[in-house]
Every structure is written in C-alpha cells, then in structure tokens.
Amino acid sequence: MRVSRRTAMRLGLMGGFALAAAPGCSHRQPRSDTLRVGALGPASAATANPYSTFTGDFDMLLMSLVFDPLTVPGAGAQVVPRMAVSWHSDDSLRQWTFQLAQNATFHDGSAVTAEDVAESLRTLRRTPGQEWKIPVPEAGIRATGPHEVTLTTEQPNSQLPMLLRLMTFTTKNGTNRSLDGSPGSGPFKIESASSRTFDRVRLVRHNGWGPSPAKVAAVELTRFAGVQALTDAVVSGQIDLAMNVGPLAARAVTGRADLQVIRRPGDLVVPLAIRCCDGPFADPRAREAIRLAVDREALVKNVLSGYGSVANDVLGTADPAYDRSLPQRVRDLDRARALFAQAGTDLGRTYQLFTKDEAFGEVNTAKIIAGQLAEAGLKVEVVQQEAEVFAAESWHKAALTTVSWGTNDSVLFFADKVLNSKSHINETGFQDPAFDTALATAMSAASAEERARALTELQRVQYDRGGYVVWGTADGVDIASSRVHDAPKLGGWGKAQLERVRLGSDTTAGSAPQ
C-alpha cells in the first residue's frame, strides 16, 4: 500500500552492513530449477519481523515468499484468495467471516489452524505503528471454527477483504513470529541465509503450499543497495530477475535477445503532499495554485523517461472505479499566480520541500517541482533527508513533502488510510467533513449504487480540495533473463507473487517491453 509504508521509522535491526554490489554473486552457471532474484533494500533497515515496516522491496518480497497473507491483489480483481479461500459479510457489513484453506501447512509440516491466523492478525493489530494495516479492533478478531476466522469491525466496512491484502502474514502460535524463529506458511521456505540481515537467502519450494506448489524448485534472493549494482547483476547473468530497476536501465538493454523488459503499469505514485489543516497552504486556493503550476507531462518525461502516465490528483489511479470524467488538470501559470494572490500566499519567503531518496526518482521529482513552482512565483528549497529522519520529523508534519505509494488499484484504500480525518497516517492533515461523509457511505451503504455514488463524490472532493499533487503514475520496470517466463505483471506488491514464475530455454523469450 505502499500497503507497507516505506517512509515509517526504520528499525535498524541486527547491525547490517551496506552493500555496494551483490553479496555472494558469482558467474557460475545457474541451476535450471533455481530462480535468482535481485531486489533493492538497505541492509541497515533489515528486519526478521513480518509485522514491521519494510524499507525497499527486498524485505517485503522475502516476507511474501515465506509467509502467506489472508488475501492478495489479483490480475482480474482487486482482491483474490490466499490463506483465506472465501469470505462473506453479514447484512450490517460489520461482521466478516473468512474460510481458510483446509490443507494449509506450515513449513515444519504442522497444520495451519484458525487460531494461528487469528493470533497473527491480532499481533499485527497491536504492533506499534502497524495498526492501520488491519481496520479491526483486536477484540474483534476471533477463530470461530477449525478453518474459520471472523472479524468484526467497529463501523460497516464493505472493503475489508481488500484492506487486508499483503501484510496479514500467517505465523505459528508458540513461536517468536519471525523469519529466524517461526516456520513459514508461504510458497517457499528458507533453506539458508548468508547473514543475520538476510542479504542473500536461498528458499526452496514448500510442497504443502496451496492448491499446487510453486513452479520453480528454489529461489535465491539477493539484497542490493543501489540500482546500478542490481542492473549490472542481471546484465552480466548473475541473477535472472532484477526488480524495479527503473526506465533508464530498461532503455539500455532493450533489443538484447538474452534479456527482456517487463513493465507493470500503475506500480507507483510519488505525489507532492501539501499540508491542508494549517500552515501556509491551508487555503484550498493555494493548493489549487500549486497543482496548476506543476507540469505533469514534463515530470513523466524527465522523471519516468516515458515509463508511466499523467495522473489527476486522485490516489488509486488503477482502480476500475477511478473517476476519469474529472477534467484533466494542465499547467496554467497565470491562473496559479492569480490563486496565490487570492489566497494571500506570501511569495516573498522561501518554503522548504522535504524529500528522501527512497522511491525511484523521488529526489528528482522534488527538484523538478521546485523549479516549476518558481515559475509561478513560489520559491521552494528542496531539503533531502535520510528516510528515518524524514519519517520522524517531516512526514505528515511539514507543509511540503514528497511521499510514495505502491499498489495503486484502490481509491478507497487511500481514502481510508491517508485522507480519512481519523487516520493516524493522514499525510496532508486533510480534514473535510464532506469527504468523511462520502467515505463512510462508500464503505457502509447496503446499496452498491449508493456506494458507487459516494465513491465518485469523495474523488471529486479530493480533486477539488485535497492535499496531493498526483502528477503521474510510474510503471514498474523489471529486467529478466529470456529464460524467465510468467513473471508478475501486477503493479505494486503484486510483483511479489513469484510462485507462478517458471524457467525455460534462453531462446524462448524476447526482449520487447511487455
């Protein structure tokens, strides 16, 4: 979201070491049944705790391979079964019953019980800073049968199965619920790890997983500190799949017969967040001026190198219910200057825009936006911070920040998590009674038509008065060996679903973008 908030406080566990290149990679011939994957993630933020915050792709990917969540994103639906095979609600939309896979086993061969699942959800709920990931009070989480868990929300919630995607990992009762202390429940189990920061992990197929086991016998997952080292590793054949390398690397390898570029539309947004409830831009006219001063086409071209599309200031760009009837905002400097004047914005001072080098192109985004705002008369100084400093001092506090989110297929997810006035991670301090009313109706109305009308209304409010400049959506860009088939095409954390990947001949896949 990200379903995991990458900008939250880093844990700094286990005294890891920063990597400048792939640890332990060699030029040996790969085993035909082993998928070698590289992903970005600072070793300094490594964690063995599946209920913590993940900084970068590596840790989230590792957790998703080892532990099964309740539900996941799907190619044809916003939410599809995983540990839960089906679900239904009562008429009030407050009580949801999830039927669990009856044959699910942990990696030690023991059966997954409903109480294992229920206590895993309770653990996530009571973990400091993670409660937003599960909108159910701890007391409302109960095992109600051998393969059944019932969740009771405080308010009606038509979207609960979707809101439980990805982070609701199942761990075993009676363990410490960590990578190094609990048997997993996902498609792969850990065979070996190179260090306590799990910088290079070999996982083998869990034959007791799901309706059918993973296609490959093993996955070797390697942590990388930077995009260049990750790209070099896939180009040199040290790994088979490099995740989120970005468009520049993709352009450099396009046309090579031994490599393929995989595009995952709607993967990431890196919006400008403007504080709404107080500060220099509390007047909605000032926020509108900022939105009109931004050149979206230039940002897509210069930050994303064309691997993305222009967006329109509403989060959840890949949602089928995204309101595409809203007029597309285009740059209008004259109107922006007029709105700054009407709002009484002090154009004589310099404002700070806080950013961090976390998502692809995030710092560059801040610098380009600062230059564009200057053309409308608003002087902005870009201040780059370490991610943990940003999380502690600037995130949901400063007047101007950049933020980043993946898995952009749900308007309601963002409405509930970061725009709801009651949310603990309301990044812009947005407090709008009309929005809250529309959100409540969209989540709780018994009629699908009424929910749809409310969803349209809350998007209009966000478009008119919200605090985000959602200038574009970035494609996820991966590079893979031509022997890799059926790699994930979903945006956001859908990319973690590696269990259907298979390996074949080096000559059976092309290099054209997909």
Describe this structure in words.
The N terminus and C terminus are likely disordered. The longest helix has 18 residues. It contains 13 helices and 22 strands. With 514 residues, it is an alpha+beta fold. The strands form 6 sheets. Strands 1, 8, 9, 10, 11, 12, 14, 18 and 20 form a 9-stranded mixed β-sheet that branches. Strands 4-5-7-6 form a 4-stranded antiparallel β-sheet, with helices on one face. Strands 17-13-19 form a 3-stranded antiparallel β-sheet, with helices on one face. The protein has 2 domains: 228 residues, D-Maltodextrin-Binding Protein, domain 2 (3-Layer(aba) Sandwich); 207 residues, Dipeptide-binding Protein, Domain 3 (Dipeptide-binding Protein, domain 3), CATH 3.10.105.10. The radius of gyration is 23 Å and the shape is globular. One of its GO terms (molecular function) is peptide transmembrane transporter activity. It comes from Segniliparus rotundus (strain ATCC BAA-972 / CDC 1076 / CIP 108378 / DSM 44985 / JCM 13578).
Radius of gyration: 23 Å
Helix content: 25-40%
Number of helices: 13
Structural class: alpha+beta
The first-level CATH class of the largest domain is given as Alpha Beta
CATH superfamily of the largest domain: Periplasmic binding protein-like II
Shape, principal axes of CA atoms: globular
Secondary structure tally: strands = 22
Question: How much of the sequence is in beta strands?
Answer: 15-25%
Name the CATH architecture of the largest domain.
3-Layer(aba) Sandwich
Low-confidence regions: 1-27, 507-514
Distance between the termini: 24 Å
Number of domains: 2
Q: In this structure, how is the largest beta sheet organized?
A: 9 strands, mixed
Output mean pLDDT: 90
CATH topology of the largest domain: D-Maltodextrin-Binding Protein, domain 2
Oligomerization status of the protein chains: single chain
Protein name: Extracellular solute-binding protein family 5
GO molecular function, one term: peptide transmembrane transporter activity
Signal peptide: 1-20
Domain Solute-binding protein family: 78-409
